[in-house]
Amino acid sequence: MPNMISDAFEPYLLRTFVAVCHHGSLSGAAQQAGRAQSALSAQIRRLEELLGQRLLRRTGRGVVPTTEGELLLSYATRILALGETVATRLKERTVMGTVRVGLSEDIAVSALPAALGRLRRASPHVHLDITVDHGDALAERWHDGLLDVAVGVSSVFAADPVHTWNMPLYWVCGIDDEIDPASALDVIVYAEPCAWRRRMFDALLAAGRDFRVTVTSPNIGVIMAAVESGLGVALLPAENIRPDTMRVIALGPNGGPALSVNYGLFAVQRQTDSIRATVELLSESFHLMTQPRTGVLIPCDTPHPILAPTR
Predict the structure, then answer these.
(1) Centroid of chain to Cα 6
(2) Neighbouring C-beta atoms of residue 174, cutoff 10 Å
(3) Are 270 and 279 in contact (CB under 8 A)?
(4) Under 8 Å CB-to-CB from 12, ≥6 apart: which residues?
(5) Cα dihedral angle (73, 78, 83, 85), rounded to 10 degrees?
(6) How far apart (Å, rounded) are the C-alpha atoms in residues 237 and 282?
(7) In the predicted model, is pLDDT for residue 229 greater than 90?
(8) pLDDT tens digits for 117-154?
(9) How many angstroms separate the CA atoms of 133 and 230, rounded?
């Protein structure tokens, strides 16, 4: 029995289980890992056999952990984090120093917690001085030499990024909202300046869709709350879509063109160990954030596309 229990906590099994819970589906986790869905399914079954417990249950929107699965998820996250900390401490020398980081508000709440957690475990002596603001303000601070690392919309920076990502954006509304194609579309937008706002307006105007702005805010938390409250339609990245309270809406009869905004990570040329560590972990966090999240996106069940012309 001791061997069976220890086998259950093989890191690769726990990592697969955590990934499936994070994505809300086997297909999403498999796509993220670049592996066959059947391989991940076999690993989940193996974990359930070793523990003698059912860990996942299917719903209409994917899979969620059972009560036993929620308990394992809590411990598995800590076990993997501890393993990462031990490996880092044994392999790397101490990294310390202050890094001035600038992040766009629209994505900081999504990528920052994961990046900070990993950085704290890997380099506990690094101190981050974080500025969160809109893209134009960050670009100005960057060009004034006030930041060591910045992440924002690439088009507003007059510099070459270390890495770039295309952030897919999805049209979302409250889960129980009914979209009337004969009425002006209520939209929820970021305050100017905002690349997402401009992409939204361009798409609506190109489709000939009448619309009216019902909520404007510089804060993504307010935007999400307004969507959940049924105040209108917004553009959000997959990371900020809550499947229990929001649903994704098709742009047109065939889904419409995909919308995305290009983000860049910018870093000073002369980098300390602490800056290099910060760049590496932010890069990994933003890369994960831009991957498809199949378990999160809910197919449109509205009979009319939201961009159908009102005339």
Answers:
(1) 33
(2) 17
(3) no
(4) 43
(5) 140
(6) 17
(7) yes
(8) 777 777 777 888 888 887 788 889 999 999 999 988 88
(9) 27
Q: What is the pTM of this model?
A: 0.58
3-state secondary structure of 161: coil
Q: How many residues are recorded in the chain?
A: 311
E strand or H helix at 173: strand 163-174
Give the lowest-confidence range in 89-98, 173-182, 224-233. Answer: 89-98
The pLDDT assigned to 216 comes to 93
CB burial of residue 288 (10 Å; 0-12, 13-18, 19+): middle
Q: CA 171, CA 104: separation in Å to the nearest integer?
A: 20
Q: Which pair of tokens denotes residue 16?
A: 């697969």
Helix (H) or strand (E) holding 172: strand 163-174
Q: Count the neighbouring beta carbons within 10 Å of the beta carbon of residue 205.
A: 11
pLDDT at 100: 92
pLDDT in tens, 75-113: 888 888 887 777 666 655 556 778 898 888 767 666 666
DSSP 113-129: HHHHHHHHHH-TEEEEE
pLDDT score for 8: 61
CA 252 distance to own-chain centroid:
24
Answer yes or no: are the C-beta atoms of 76 and 83 closer than 8 Å. no
- The CA-atom distances, in angstroms, between 299 and each of 186, 216, 251, 286 are 20, 26, 12, 25
HSE at residue 95, side-chain half, CA atoms within 13 A, is 24
